[in-house]
Amino acid sequence: MQVPAPFEYERATSVDHAIGLLERLGGEARLVAGGHSLLPMMKLRLTDLEYLIDINDLHAELGYVRMGTDEVRIGAMTRHRELLESPELAALFPIFADAERVIADPVVRNRGTIGGSLCQADPSEDLSAVCTTLNAHCVVRGSTGERVVSMEDFYRGPYETAVEQGEMLTEIRIAVRPNGSSAYAKVERRAGDWAVTSAGAAVWMDGPVITDARVGLAAVGPNTTGIPEISEALRGQEPTDALYARAGAIAAASCTPTTDNRGTADYKRHLANELTQRTLRRAVDRVQAGVRGDIGRDE
Amino acid sequence: MTIAEERKKVDHVDNDQKPLGHGRMLRKEDPRFVRGLGRYCDDVQLTGMLHLAILRSPVAHARIVSIDTSAAEAHPKVKAVVTGAALAELGLAWMPTLSNDVQAVLATDKVRFQGQEVAFVVAEDRYAARDALELIDVEYDVLPPVIDVRKALAADAPVIRDDLEGKIDNHCFDWEAGDEAATAAVFERADVVVTEDIVYPRVHPAPMETCGAVADFDRVEGRLTLYSTSQAPHAHRTLYAIVAGLPEHKIRVISPDIGGGFGNKVPIYPGYVCAIVGSIVTNKPVKWMEDRTENLISTGFARDYVMRGEIAATRDGKILAVRTNVLADHGAFNGTAAPVKYPAGFFGVFTGSYDLEAAHAKMTAVYTNKAPGGVAYACSFRITEAVYLVERLVDCLAYDLDMDPVELRMKNFIRPEQFPYTTKTGWVYDSGEYATAMNKALELAGYEELRREQAERRARGELMGIGVAFFTEAVGAGPRKDMDILGLGMADGCELRVHPTGKAVVRLSVQSQGQGHETTFAQIVAEEIGIPPEDIDVVHGDTDNTPFGLGTYGSRSTPVSGAAAALVARKVRDKARIIASGMLEVSVADLEWQKGAFQVKGDPGRSVTIQQIAMRAHGAGDLPDGIEGGLEAQICYNPSNLTYPFGAYICVVDVDPGTAQVKVRRFIAVDDCGTRINPMIIEGQIHGGLTDGVGMALMEMISFDEDGNCLSGSLMDYLIPTALEVPDWETGFTVTPSPHHPIGAKGVGESATVGSPPAIVNAVVDALKPFGIRHADMPLTPSRVWDAMQGHPLPPI
Ligand SMILES: Cc1cc2nc3c(=O)[nH]c(=O)nc-3n(C[C@H](O)[C@H](O)[C@H](O)COP(=O)(O)OP(=O)(O)OC[C@H]3O[C@@H](n4cnc5c(N)ncnc54)[C@H](O)[C@@H]3O)c2cc1C
User: Of B25, B100, B191, B773, whose CB is crowded by the most CB atoms within 10 A?
Assistant: First the structure.
């Protein structure tokens, strides 16, 4: 059994209480949500926090998926499992269910949260790629109020985010646009492993023509900017194999993978290409089928 | 019975059929395991018990300049801090390994691998012990490490084992088998010679329960009780007596329930010795349980063979000879657990299941700055490597000859009438019906149909592979004339006592780590004396309560202790027969045994049950002349030969042409382990071993960076397979009893681990045939398969 170094523990009873504690306890305090990233680091003694502020009691306040007409709002404490099992989300953004089916395992998904996932800011993290693909925005709250930041601004580098001392992430917002759908694909060495590479794609269409598209990648370098060149290449085009191939080539060219135990940089680059093509094709199929959620789930 | 009928029985009938002997029955030990009531080492709580944590080297190779323990000693909950220097004063800084090398308990001069034990702390609780490690200040003078095994013998390589007198290189040992000249002559005249470089990477047993111990030294009595995660409690006790100088009768080793071993719990680890020292210096019981990282980076690994294999054949596919040159990475200390005369374990069976004219193997073992060990992990003493080598080579030959791999194997099998068959490396295979097993596997697989499907898929650009492997194992070490571990013969004792009411207790030296001994051994005894298995208690894992024997590894429990159990039961039965003759007032020759009772021949009305005999043996009244009271016996069984189980495995895989991911679609395993005691347990062993094989073939590897940092120190980095990576296993069997084993049984624990990796790799390589690939090394991760598809399969090290 791996055992962490000593720390103090407090349970927050509300978002304001949590923020108050963060302000009072300063830089040595950390929030714990699902704990599936933080606790392993504590047990391996890779983090030297002194105070742990448990925000699991905030699930009632921050655990939700709210469907609006032009925006979907997801509370930071929404668990992976809730994202996986939300029928509304599956209908509107099937990319979530695609991704959640391959994130970790049921034990992790029962506790891990979208807020913790984004705040961990691990470049291999899948929900960051999903949120990037959907051009999500993050609501960061402190004692003086709220800020809304894009994924690109939220992510400051590996394990670093725009959440400043005394602040926390409370909500993720995703704009709803008509005639769109999305998809996600991941290559892993084994079920429950982190991605070797994964890709998400979202497309919006007008008849046979793609009006807009976004691709987000994971595990091949910083992954929260989206890939504007792909969006430009696809806009106004009819989907063809050649178009997908072009998008795939752009994805491969614009990522920065490194060689590690999960695979070589060349292989990951190849996957960025392959998975970009696969997810774009599936997203387009879903738009064309008019059913957003359930096409090709089990391929 | 066909496999389908067997299946039906399992699926539709209560599978606990309560056989009066051999047969399918639920495991007696499972009620406590499935309720979470097993009692493992970490469950042991003794009054006043303290906790021990080990400080480990952060680097692979360095000289220790200084160690400052003062801050750790000042920690309010710390009871003792011990360094190598302190152990050296007690003469305990070094200990012998199972291969007659020495290993540092705590480093005194240098650290030789990342994770090596440097100091330990004993504290009031596990947390404080761990916190105090951070207060120990060690100054290291970092030395260049030897990580690449191929460079270990380079002239300028730093010498790792300068503790050994006169050591000027990293050479560990050389080993050879077979006839070099005769083999060269056969290769000379062969039509076809195929050469392939084949790596079996370093893997780890990764048992769910890590290693640990609770040491309790009684100062007054001078008595040590050691609870430890040991697969071989008796061998360990003797070694502690030798290492620590404690009298052997004052040492009691208790091996409670063990959460998986796979060879990982055969060696004596420094941690056990530290726990003992910790208890001696604090005068309190001391618990040490390593964490997952410690287990992965410091305990007995397996494999790590870099092999060049060659196979010679005629053009029409008659295999003439095999030869190999192996570079073996033994890590920083040679901790291999193998019989002394077999430094390369039983690698000599690399001739496989084939009738050859010649064979030769040469091996050089070297030291590197990596964790020691070297035999662990369900490998039957290196047969895993041997079988992998020959089964890959045969497939490479099939590739070059453009011949079906099944046809090539069938053509070269040792034929049934050739048994006992002496191989060109001197092993005497006891019995085998190889073609029968292969045919059964082909039938279960629908081989012809699979090949047809493959042709169709290939035409569509899909990548489907069919892999075939055939293995012969050599298990049950071993005959005491050639096999011993540190001078301890590999014979096993067994005691059987029948109580007055006809219930029995059988005591064994072997120790189950999940193999179901409490059931299998009860069934072996039940079969011989007709007492139901549920009435027979199996006692093991406690040296004070069991006879001497060498423990459980190398699939030896059934071949050795199983034979002992059967023979001791027969001894008891022989005595029971004499008592029965007195009870029935007939001569012994007039009695016949009917499992559970002796009956007067031809007179079914006159019989006595074993339970009645037991009461008579302990009761009042006369017994036949010269017969003592009681019904018990004792034996020490020395096997005359190993047993040689075998099997035919067929694997079907699909490779995603876009992502290079491998999916094992089907796996057919036909095993022959001779007489089958409990088919359900056998299937369980096979299922586990096959899953293991998927792990090794597709994902497992302990890897290092060039500085010697272990990159596989957690189960996020060292992947082991889950239910999602394995297909629904299709098992079948044939029965070819061992002629020399009392009940004809052969070991089966490691068969599937030995046989499955080559079947899976052969399948993946077969799938990649369109890319002109003849060989690709494990682990076949998507990235490595993709490399192969690009035409450059790379060795993993
Ligand atoms: C075995 C295993 C496999 C995994 N596999 C995958 C995978 O395949 N793909 C994947 O994407 N992830 C994977 N994960 C990670 C998993 O998804 C985690 O749950 C997730 O990364 C973190 O969520 P959490 O709620 O557990 O965060 P925690 O561990 O509680 O917190 C993580 C970090 O975020 C901070 N934090 C949490 N909530 C907030 C908030 N509201 N505001 C500000 N800061 C906050 C914490 O202080 C901490 O620094 C895996 C984890 C495990 C253990």
Answer: B25
> Which of A1, A5, A190 is closest, CB to CB, to B699?
A190
**Distance between CA atoms of residues A261 and B717, nearest Å:** 8
Query: By C-alpha distance, which of B183, B182, B257 is closest to B227?
Result: B257
Tell me the C-alpha distance between B32 and A151, whole Å. 51
Partners of B796 on chain A (C-beta within 8 Å) are none
- Report the C-alpha dihedral over residues B105, B106, B110, B113, rounded to 10 degrees: 70
Whether the ω angle into residue B493 lies within 30 degrees of 0, i.e. cis, is no
Strands of B339-461 (E only): list them: 358-366, 421-422, 428-429
Cβ atoms of residues B475 and B562 within 8 Å: no
Closest CA to B380 of B780, B752, B757: B752
β-pair type (B251-254, B223-228): parallel
Token pair 């950390």 is at which residue?
A: A30
Cα end-to-end distance, chain B, whole Å: 46
What's the rounded Cα separation, in Å, for the pair A18 and B279? 46
Q: How far is B257 from chain A (nearest CA, A)?
A: 18
Best mutation site among A108, A197, A198 for ligand 1 pocket (most ligand atoms within 8 Å of CB) = A108
pLDDT by 10s per residue, chain A, length 299 = 789 999 999 999 999 999 999 999 999 999 999 999 999 999 999 998 999 999 999 999 999 999 999 999 999 999 999 999 999 999 999 999 999 999 999 999 999 999 999 999 999 999 999 999 999 999 999 999 999 999 999 999 999 999 999 999 999 999 999 999 999 999 999 999 999 999 999 999 999 999 999 999 999 998 777 899 999 999 999 999 999 999 999 999 999 999 999 999 999 999 999 999 999 999 999 999 975 444 444 44
- What are the chain A neighbours of B712 within 8 Å (beta carbons)? 261
* CA–CA distance, B560 with B747 (Å, rounded to integer): 9
Distance in Å, CA A160 to ligand 1 centroid: 13
Of the candidates B289, B264, B263, B259, which has an alpha carbon nearest to the alpha carbon of residue B29? B259
Chain A residue at shortest CA distance from B295: A1
Secondary structure of residue B224 in the 3-state scheme = strand
Ligand 1 atom closest to the Cα of residue A140 is 42
Distance between CA atoms of residues B302 and B454, nearest Å: 35
Length of chain A: 299
| Interface predicted TM-score (ipTM) | 0.95
d(CA B518, CA B511): 10
For residue A72, CA distances in Å to A100, A127, A136, A177, B740 come to: 17, 15, 9, 11, 74
Instruction: Give me the residue label for tokens 């586990």.
Output: B688
* Pick from A204, A284, A276: nearest CA to A246: A276
Centre of ligand 1 to C-alpha A41, Å, is: 11
* pTM, 2 dp: 0.96
- Which residue, B60, B171, B202, B155, is CA-closest to B797? B202
Structure tokens at B234: 């008796």
Phi, psi of B45 (to 5 degrees): -125, 120
